[in-house]
Amino acid sequence: MTNQTTLIGPFSQLLPMAELPKAGPIQDEQLQVLERAGVLVKGEQIVKIGNYDQLHHEAVEQKYELQFIQEPMVLLPGLIDAHTHICFGGSRANDYAMRVAGKSYLEIARSGGGILDSVRKTREATLVELVTLLKERCSRHLQEGVTTCEVKSGYGLTVEEELKMLEAIQLVNKHHKLDLVPTCLAAHMLPPEHADARLYLQEVLTELLPQVQEQGLAKRVDIFVEETAFKEEEALEFLLAAKEMGFEVTVHADQFSTSGSRVAAEAGAVSADHLEASGEEEIELLREAGVVATVLPGASLGLGMHYAAARKMLDGGLCLAIATDWNPGSAPMGDLLMQAAVLGAAQKLTTAETLAAITTRAATALKLTDRGCLAKGKLADMIAFPTSNFKEILYLQGKLKPGKVWKRGKAVAV
After folding, report:
1. How many CA atoms lie within 13 A of 370 on its CB side?
2. Is the distance from CB of 357 to CB of 319 less than 8 angstroms?
3. What is the rounded average pLDDT of the residues 111-128?
């Protein structure tokens, strides 16, 4: 890390995404938009943002380095994808073809598809193969402006295979510019070798999670609450036990039925993710418990089902994050900006609400306080779009990609 201070700019516009409401609606008028702005960066952190000409005068006086931006550009904080499954082996293209041809989930599973197909292929993959595949997906995400990404295990479903997945995530995190936030999702579904959900969850608690802690592989634990996965009572017991061990907890909640949000509220989860089935009662439960609502439009697009009620969630006082759910089955696209733009149009979210949901509020969903906005002391995770008007970013629905990306103060090739 260098101690050299660098001035980067001028940017046509700079959106700090700081000092916005932590939850509930955000009007576009509440967005701070700095015209002809610059950023002073020292090492990995932002020192100052402000008027470029004033910062330039200071930079010349202090003999700072200059990174001159020649074309019109709009600067935003790096995007944060708060829910993904991008460590996996194989493809589920056959499942997708069957699904769009009208086959049911059960029919697809009976023909050898479904989540257990990904479990088989991930188990068959070596650690090196998983690392290679994960690195490729991270590189694409980084090029598209995602500078921090949550990644779940959950396609191993044995102690050994879950550890292999988490080790792959750890290895990539050490050697890739993208920051990964690992989550242990051994409670994704009941593995084929087990008939008793409670016994399996007990095995996760007693045999897997102590090793996860010991090896520093994850600080977060997740569970899928659904009739086809784990039921409300056993999920709550599991999460409370994981919390007792010192893990932060999150929940796959309300994708098809509504018991998961209740579990998230009672367990004091950081976030409840999916929420396609959530109604007013669930929204109120989550609000009272201070749980972040993370909605996953990629899963709605992949499954051909309705979106989570993001507008109602904001109006109901929730902190709303938008994430991709990038996975081989229900959400194979993995384009955060495009999905956020499309959801925003469908749910009538303001530009401010949509951008906050993939930056500052997504940081809240991962309990990250050092990123998500551009301000003094925050990480210099920044993305610049080749336009002079920030409204073009969502207007073009994800087709306008960043022309420049900085991760921890260093420019990344895009």
Report:
1. 11
2. no
3. 94
pLDDT at 1 over 80: no
Token readout for 142 is 């980084």
**Contact 69/402 with Cβ under 8 angstroms?**
no
b/e for 295-331, b at 16 or more Cβ within 10 A? bbbbbbbbbeeebbbbbebbebebbbbbbbbbbbbbb
Q: Which pair of tokens denotes residue 37?
A: 């702005």
**Model confidence pLDDT, tens digit, residues 206-221:** 999 999 999 999 999 9
The pair phi, psi for residue 398, each rounded to 5°, is 95, -5
Q: Which two tokens stand for residue 307?
A: 């979106």
CA distance 321 to 270: 12
Q: What is the mean pLDDT of residues 115-119?
A: 93
**For residue 2, pLDDT beyond 80:** no
Q: b/e map of 158-194 (b: 16 or more CB within 10 Å)?
A: bbebbbbbbbbbbbbbeebebbbbbbbbbbbbbbeee
Cβ atoms of 161 and 125 closer than 8 Å: no
For 42, the enclosing helix (H) or strand (E) is strand 34-42
Q: Give the model's pLDDT for residue 228.
A: 87
